[in-house]
Every structure is written in structure tokens, then in C-alpha cells.
Amino acid sequence: MSDTLKITTLLFDWDGTLVDSAAKGLLAFQWAFAELGVPFPIEVYESIYSPNWYSIYEALNLPKEQWERADELWLQHYGEQAANLIDGAATTLLNLSSRGYRLGVVSSGSERRVCREIERSDLRDCFEVLICNEQMVNKKPHPEGLETALRHLGRSSSEAAYVGDAPQDIQMGKHANVMTIGVRSAYPTSVNLLSAQPDLLLETISELSQHFHQDHQRQSARA
After folding, report:
1. Topology of 9-20+84-222 in CATH?
2. Separation between Cα atoms, residue 147 and residue 155, nearest integer Å
3. What pLDDT was estimated at residue 116?
């Protein structure tokens, strides 16, 4: 699937794809595990990293009864200061929005944190739908999050694409039968994007504008 002309809806992963949170997220994990007294070998983290942080807890042998506390500590150490947008993200998405593309976020991140970062960014008015960890029973790469977003927007999978920086993002998109777009990031699993076989692979988020440049506002006006 590579026909971008029929795409009217672009859904995005948040961390790594639109916001530069990799370094802050890693530090928050390290501090949280240290406070819990559980080893956090960085080489293991880098080899098993997943947008579903519960799989990280499991792989690093964090007892399940400590997962809720680990969540609290991660958010505490991540801090209230929002991470910065990836270079080019604001300009690219504002341009897509102005052309009539419908935009949304489907993220494994916590709703409180992602909402805060969106509200403090130049993208605060861009998104029509936001699906976070709290709205998903089944985590990535299960397609539930994308399917929920498409239902909310009244859009079919054939006119939607999902943009993410991890293989699990691409797998989720494929399971939801949407076009899949990989974009490089600072997160460990980004190096494995090609193996997930996205329909498009971009080096930067700014490259989206080269592939999605239809004027859907004019098309809607003519309809």
C-alpha cells in the first residue's frame, strides 16, 4: 500500500515521532528503578525497548506488584516540564492541517502527560482525536487504539495512515489495515524500523510534506 492520494487522515504516535522525549524517558526509567531498588541494565533496555512499557517492566524483572508504583515514579521523575517537539514537527503538521488533512494521536503514553505536552506545544489545535494508554485495553501492536480513533473520526482504514518510530507502531498499523509510515527517532527500536516493512520510511518528520500535499479543503468544497 503506497498510494498517498487517497489518504485524508493521518494518525501519529507521540513519543519519538512528534516529541523528543527519548532522553527524558530513559532518565525517568533509571531513576524510578533505582528508587525501587531494581537493577536497570541499559543494554537490556536498549535491546528490548517497546512503546508498551509494561513489557519493559516484565523484561527487566520488575515484580508485577510494583508496576503501579513504577508508573507513578516514572511520571514524577519525567517531570512537569513538557518535552520539546521534534524539529520540523510543528511546521509540517500545521501545514497538513491547513490543507484539510484530519489529524490525531494514538499513543501508549499516559493521557495526563501527553495532553499536557500537546497543550504546551504549537500543535494544541491540530488534533481531532487523542487515544492514550488509558483508552486502550489492548496495547501496541494490537490495532485497538487505531480502530478507536478511526471510529471517532468516522473514517475508514483505507483513507488513513499511521506514523510511528517503532516496529510496534508499524505492526499496529498493518493490523489495522492502514497505510504505515516509519520515521527515524532517538528511541532504541527505531533502528529496526526497516525490518517492520513500513509502506514509507522517512528520515525526518518534515519529509511527510513531500508525500501528502493534496488540498482536501478544496476537494470538500467542490463535493
Report:
1. Rossmann fold (3.40.50)
2. 10
3. 92
Domain boundaries, the chain: 9-20+84-222, 22-78
Alpha-carbon span 143 to 45, nearest angstrom:
24
Cα dist from 59 to 42, 46, 213, whole Å: 12, 11, 42
Specify whether the CB–CB gap between 196 and 162 falls below 8 A. Answer: no
Give the DSSP letter string of 24-78. HHHHHHHHHHHHHT----HHHHHHH--SSHHHHHHHTT--GGGHHHHHHHHHHHH
Q: What is the pLDDT of residue 129?
A: 98
Give the pTM.
Answer: 0.90
**Whether residue 214 has pLDDT greater than 80:** yes
Cell of 24: 527524558
Contact 149, 131 (CB under 8 A): yes
What's the confidence (pLDDT) of residue 220?
47
Alpha helices in the chain (DSSP H): 22-36, 42-48, 53-59, 67-78, 89-98, 111-119, 144-153, 167-175, 208-211, 216-222
Q: Please state whether the peptide bond connecting residue 141 to the residue before it is cis, i.e. omega within 30 degrees of 0.
A: yes
